[in-house]
Design a protein that fits this description.
By secondary structure, this protein is an alpha/beta fold. The chain binds adenosine-5'-diphosphate and zinc ion (ZN) (2 copies).
Length: about 725
């Protein structure tokens, strides 16, 4: 028998399994997941590794295969925990163990740690005074200044020498040669920082106190309980998180605070930084590999107690996790988009079971999954129905755009919204305008024949950049914009403007001189631009902020009194069973942005479908009513959480072969049992990067049936002639690919 062993997935070069023989004496004790000791490399250095598969034979000369030395004994460290989590992810979501390990173990930095140099005093003060007098006589001002600084400070950071003291390197070297001082170098981990804000010291209201007490009791006894806080925006959830984190840290245990990538902004971070200072750190996508790795090292060494970050922050190697908080738990970014397509909610729950940590989720618009689990009594539900500051929820008004049109108003602003905007500007208050359109901004089409220029490799339109380059956002293909329409030869080829850009133009025409900020994919491409726009809006540098869904997440702008949602139903037409849920969440969250300070606010929802329950319930800020309608629909149509779903996605360069593979797989699955299968069908976007995509859906009331279907598929693919084709599994799919 042989075993595939992964030596160290955190180092790229070693991130593949190596073959080892299982010696007679160990046979029967080694299984997939065992930690083993193995000889590695020419010198046969002993290393530790993980068994990722067992095999009957190896592909090359068996005489060259080395023996496994033995099993690794000892305690469950953070590393073993990662391995167990990887196993859970592989078993739940499919894919290989190696892929799962890669998701949970941080990549090791190639960069060196940051070096800090400090000049340290060596001579005593008398000697230094003599040196200073000598330098003074010789008019060596730089040298004299440095010596005097050394007399006053035993240690001087090198940044000080070149900065404040303005002393050259050769002067320092000269002093070192004289034996007056020496350099000490140490390395430091990179520390991300956030702007400090003034901390408001609030005393909890009764509702908050009740919730904190109940959850705190669970943390103290290591109860591994799961809690859902359903609290309207501004009800004080973040304040509750802060208290819980504080209590957990006092118990000597660590906290993982998950927030969606998009909400990783200065406001929430600043509140944590001002409470916990250096003991908190952050993970985000703009950080380098080295920066992320350093945060893991700091966590391992006990230098920090709290990590804030998106789903990958779950894998921070804390020695003793006591609390995992998942804010905005309904957010789709908690699910991984690449294999293994794990959901942070389920992984967090597993992690809490393993470590005895408490799991707290919070949202103003909980996911249908979590809320139904709460209704069914699987998790504990808390409600916060009032805003903590005492201001009422904003007034909302639904405007029927069809009626506007029939009354002769062709503008994108209804009369009601226009009136509110006029008043707010008059009073010096702020306005947010929200357009929930992703769409293909920048796509180039012919005004004469309607032809849209498509990417030659993908089934998507290309976008115009810097006036003449066409770029495909799926595969990166870049071409020159043709002068004439490739279809009819017309010279009227033009780019379609992003919705937000059009809105901006209209607003500037309506209100000349008013300062406007726009926040969308284009204006936030550069690092840091996201925070910059938000903070300048927060500082009152503009009166109107226009944006896509990015602007609705968790920001607190007390001076915003008007929120305009320009076309509420754009997100209802998406082919996804979650379209209504998403629309409701977006609208409810957007409405919650108005009137967060002491002034009352109003939200205006413009729509062509005012009778749709997602629009009606969002306008009424009535989550329960929405939940009732939505769960009835999921029940009737057989969608999660009422039924589980597995999406099997097949990819291949040859359309016919890929379709055939999908059909054959469907036949094989059907021959093995009475399973509910849908498809195969071409995916939403059928071709990306020259690969055709087909999908098959399986539905079942229990997960085990879906696991069975997945293993039937995996077995089939192991035998099939796959060529360049490959497969991905998606449990309870978020969207049609
Ligand atoms: P959420 O996270 O639910 O949106 P926050 O915790 O951000 O709510 O609270 C909203 C606002 O109310 C913040 O400005 C916060 O400082 C304030 N706040 C929270 N709790 C209290 C309280 N008990 N008393 C007074 N103000 C509070
Ligand atoms: Zn044309
Ligand atoms: Zn492309």
């Amino acid at each position: 028998m042989y075993a595939d062993v992964c030596i160290d997935v955190s180092i790229e070069k070693l991130d593949k399994p190596f073959s080892y023989r299982i010696p007679e004496r160990l046979s029967g004790t080694i299984c997939v997941g065992s930690r083993v000791r193995i000889p590695f490399g020419a010198g046969n250095t002993e290393k530790k590794g993980y068994v990722t598969a067992l095999r009957d034979e190896v592909a090359y000369d068996p005489d060259k295969v080395k023996d496994i030395l033995g099993l690794v004994e000892g305690s469950m460290g953070a590393e073993d925990r990662s391995f167990e989590i990887a196993g859970f992810i592989k078993n739940t979501y499919g894919g290989t163990l190696s892929q799962a390990l890669k998701a949970v173990i941080p990549a090791k930095a190639k960069a060196k740690p940051v070096e800090i140099k400090t000049l340290v005093r060596k001579m005593d003060k008398e000697q230094l005074l003599a040196l200073a007098a000598d330098a003074n006589r010789k008019k060596q001002t730089g040298k004299e200044n440095l010596i005097r600084a050394l007399i006053e400070n035993e240690r001087i950071p090198s940044t000080w020498i070149s900065g404040k003291l303005r002393v050259s390197g050769s002067t320092v070297n000269n002093l070192i040669k004289n034996g007056a001082a020496y350099y000490e170098t140490s390395s430091e981990y990179r520390k991300p920082t956030a702007a400090e804000i003034e901390r408001k010291n609030v005393s909890l209201n009764d509702e908050q106190a009740r919730i904190v007490d109940a959850i705190d009791a669970d943390i103290e006894e290591g109860g591994a309980g799961t809690f859902l806080i359903h609290g309207v925006t501004g009800s004080g959830k973040t304040e509750v998180y802060l208290r819980l984190a504080e209590k957990c840290v006092l118990l000597g245990r660590q906290v993982i605070f998950l927030i969606p990538e998009i909400a990783l902004t200065y406001q929430t971070l600043a509140r944590f930084y001002s409470k916990f200072g250096d003991r908190v750190s952050v993970f985000n996508s703009t950080m380098s590999v080295s920066e992320r790795y350093d945060q893991c090292e700091r966590a391992k060494n006990g230098d920090i107690d709290i990590i804030i970050g998106p789903r990958s922050a779950l894998f921070t190697p804390f020695p003793n996790i006591g609390l995992i908080i998942m804010d905005e738990e309904h957010e789709s970014s908690y699910k991984s988009e690449s294999t293994p397509k794990y959901h942070a909610r389920e992984v967090a729950k597993k992690l809490c079971e393993m470590t005895g940590a408490t799991f707290v989720m919070g949202s103003a618009t909980p996911s249908i999954e979590s809320y139904s689990a709460a209704i069914n009594g699987e998790i504990t539900l808390f409600k916060m129905n009032e805003r903590a500051t005492g201001t009422g929820l904003p007034q909302t008004k639904v405007v029927d755009l069809r009626a506007e049109l029939s009354d002769g108003n062709r503008s994108m602003f209804s009369r009601a919204l226009k009136t509110c905007m006029d008043e707010a500007l008059e009073k010096g208050e702020q306005i947010m305008l929200f357009l929930n359109r992703r769409g293909f901004s920048g796509q180039v089409s012919c005004r004469e024949c309607g032809k849209v220029i498509m990417c030659p490799h993908c089934e998507v339109p290309m976008s115009l950049h810097t006036g003449s380059k066409l770029v495909c956002h799926y595969c990166g293909e870049i071409t020159e914009k043709p002068a004439l329409c490739p279809s009819c030869g017309s010279k009227y080829l033009a780019a379609i403007k992003a919705g937000t850009e059009q809105v901006e133009e209209r607003v500037l025409k309506m209100y000349p001189g008013v300062r406007v900020l726009r926040m969308d994919k284009d204006t936030t491409a550069a690092k840091g631009s996201y925070d910059k726009i938000l903070s300048s809006f927060s500082n009152g540098e503009a009166q109107i902020l226009i944006g896509t869904q990015m602007i609705v997440k968790g920001h607190d702008f007390p001076n915003v009194t008007v929120v305009g949602i320009l076309a509420a139903d754009l997100s209802l037409g998406v082919p996804d069973y979650r379209a209504s849920e998403r629309t409701f969440q977006l609208l409810a969250q957007a409405c919650g942005r108005a009137g967060r300070g002491d002034k009352p606010g109003i939200s205006i929802i413009q729509t062509y479908q005012p009778e749709h329950y997602a629009v009606k319930c969002a306008a009424a800020q009535d989550y329960e009513a929405f939940y009732e309608e939505e769960i009835a629909y999921r029940e009737a149509a057989g969608y999660p959480p009422c039924m589980h779903m597995l999406c099997i996605q097949l990819f291949g360069p040859d359309q016919k072969k890929t379709a055939n593979l999908a059909h054959e797989l469907s036949d094989v699955i059907k021959s093995k049992g009475r399973f509910r299968l849908l498809g195969p069908a071409p995916a939403n976007i059928m071709k990306v990067k020259d690969y055709y995509r087909f999908v098959l859906y399986a539905k079942a009331t229990d997960l085990d049936t879906l696991f069975e279907i997945r293993s039937i598929s995996e077995e089939y693919f192991n035998e099939a002639d796959m060529g360049q084709m490959f497969v991905q599994f998606d449990q309870d799919p978020m969207n049609q690919i």
